[in-house]
Structures are given as C-alpha cells and as structure tokens.
Amino acid sequence: MEWACKDCHRIFRDTLVCKCGSSAISKEWSGYVIILDAKNSEIAKKLGIKEEGRYALKVR
User: Fewer CB in 10 Å around end: N or C, the chain?
Assistant: First the structure.
C-alpha cells in the first residue's frame, strides 16, 4: 500500500511517518509527479517541491 503525506504530498510505502516529519498521511490520493532534479525543475518550483521523489497531485 502506498501512502501520501497531507502536508508535503510525498508518496511512500515503508513507514507511516513522512520524511518531512508529519504523521498526517492518507491512502486516498490521486495523480503523481516524479521529480528527478528539484533544483532545476520548473514543475518542482511551481509545486513548491524542494527534494527529489514521488509526489501526489491531490491528497484527501
């Protein structure tokens, strides 16, 4: 099962606490974007993402 953080939208599956330290997680999320180079990505800048990884576009 994959989870998404309600705060930063990062997608993960191993733990129930996000890397950002939040425990506000949900299994109800939709859409995702993979950021490979957060520093140079225009999409990452528009979404406010500062680290590489997989992120949900919508988390409920």
Answer: N
